[in-house]
Please model this.
Amino acid sequence: MRERAILLTHCSQLLTLRGNLAPRRGGAMRELGIIEDGAVLIDNGKIAAVGSTDEPWVRGKDVDEIDCRDKVALPGFVDSHTHPVFAAPRLIDFEKRIAGASYEEIAEAGGGIRSSIRGVREASMEQLAAQISASLNEMSAHGTTAVEAKSGYGLSLDSEIKSLEAISCAARHWCGTVVPTLLGAHVVPPAYRDNPEEYVRIVSEEIIPVTAQQKLAEYVDVFCERGAFSPEQSLCILRAAVAHGLKTRIHIGQLTHTALELFAEFRCASVDHLDHLSDADVSWLAKNDTVATLLPAANYFLGLQNFAPGRKLIDRGVAVALATDYNPGTSPTTSMPFVLSVACTQMKMSPAEAITAATINGACALNLQQSKGRLEVGKDADIAIFDVQDYREIPYWFGVNRCWKTIIAGQAI
Model:
């Protein structure tokens, strides 16, 4: 049976983010397309009308009405960088970091990413899927309606495929959108510590082909960083991804600098982290459609004083997105509102810029901008409604969840 239409009325502020499909840059990141006393008609999972509550189309309809008085409604958040496939938190890492150990020292002692391998390899696909499902539900409770989900803690053919199958299973039981990414090149697993080139071969010649054949991922990601994969190894892996019809993205510049232009041939959907950038990198990003995805919750949790140069990137015309980097070691948060708050306080992004980065630009980072990230007729009815009267309160109230209701594909949660 066709579901009844839903009508949102009397939104104190309705943030439409209306505009073109390209990622927003510069001053356009502050243009939220706000309608006061706004209304949205939702029919069959899509947005059927957008405007003010006093418009004629609002009256006399047989709909389920949701009164959004004293509320702010905006496009659902698009969390374009997460690592939800893990079995347990990394509490030893947490304590060691508090005691003064660095990210690299923890990794050298057997902690970090490698410490999550055993749990993922020993867990069943069903156990991992249940863990992912719980995370997705928690994300939607904070206003997130679309998520990129990476593998990357199995680091063997069987465990990476199992991880991607768990993502697929969890996605089928969540009404939001999940974009799966293979991150078999997260770090070199311990068994190949003395022969990393063999693991690069396994990723390129075994894991990527099977992933593509079984259609388990849309993207391939690689952690290009000291202690993970060199630029040359990363290029090899990404070329294998393209050869098998998969799109690309990169973890880069988190701990040390690597020139972004080395990867120009891939036209990556996004380059992520970017704590270490040169002026040449910024200029290159400003001239390309690749989205710069910043992950400030990781910097916060790692206790770092330096954050990615969000203010500089925006002022130089770079398309910036924000994501949680949800993972058990460096960013155990599912809250996009918290990420917005850290972006405002630590990277000096304005609240409007942060919201743009977490909605339409996040959608662009996943090539979802045709249907996500804006409240316009014909787009998916993915909407987050916050119990605030002004959109600036969303990043202002940190450490609490002010999300009042989330609507995904026309279903009110």
